[in-house]
Amino acid sequence: MIKFDKVTKKFKTEDKKSFTAVRACTFHLKKGAYIGIAGNSGCGKSTLARLMAGLIKPTSGRISYNNIATEEIQIIFQHPESALNPKMIILSSLLEPIRIHKNMTLEVGQKKMKTLMDLLGLSQELLQRYPHEISGGEAQRICICGALLMRPKILILDEATSMLDVSTQASILNVLKDIRKKLSISMVMISHDLELLYHQCDEIFMMSEGQFVEGGMMSSLGRDMQESFKFFYD
Are strands 154-158 and 73-76 parallel, antiparallel or unpaired? Predict the structure, then answer.
């Protein structure tokens, strides 16, 4: 679905020096794959995620997309406040992409959002609040709902469960694994937590100083999808 061919991304520092965040990365994200990307802070993981989502362009190298539109790639960041409009109630923020892309009616979008809220253990009442009126954990799960509402072919999670407590994190990750298995969504999980990636992903890539240093196949697969989940992707 997405191929990186010797992709490099450089940035300019404040003193106008060049900094290489991602260096000559080559890999292939296949349909239905669930890969993990691990590494210490500053190793280039988040830059790689933004390159994959098309939010930034590579300095050199090539990124190829196989019949994937930009709106079919959704990325969930570690800090959810950046994805929610502080001047809108939660429901309006979540439905805004539907107004822009017009890939479903607002009525259908609202029904599917409520189904997602239930599956991720969130109260419907939160939809009428403003971002400053909810907790960080609630905001993170709401952003996951918003990303799934867009029916993505590729879902990128950049430390997206780090703000959740252990029990909530496990529940959400199980739901994500179910979605991926049933609907053949490709997923990329970025984390510094190797144990988490080992239990979630089929393949893990390690990054250091902007490069992949090693990779390996994982055998973890999700459970069967819940019947109630079928309807919102129809």
Answer: parallel
Task: Give the number of domains in the chain.
Answer: 1
What global pTM score does this model have? 0.82
CATH of the domain at 74: 3.40.50.300
Domain containing 138 equals 2-233
pLDDT in tens, the chain (234 residues): 899 999 999 998 888 888 999 999 998 898 888 899 988 888 999 999 999 999 999 999 999 988 788 788 999 887 777 778 899 999 999 888 888 876 788 888 888 888 888 888 899 999 999 999 998 888 888 988 888 888 889 999 988 777 778 887 887 788 787 777 777 789 999 988 888 888 888 888 888 889 988 665 554 333 333 343 344 444
How far is residue 213's CA from residue 171's CA, in Å, rounded to a whole number?
31
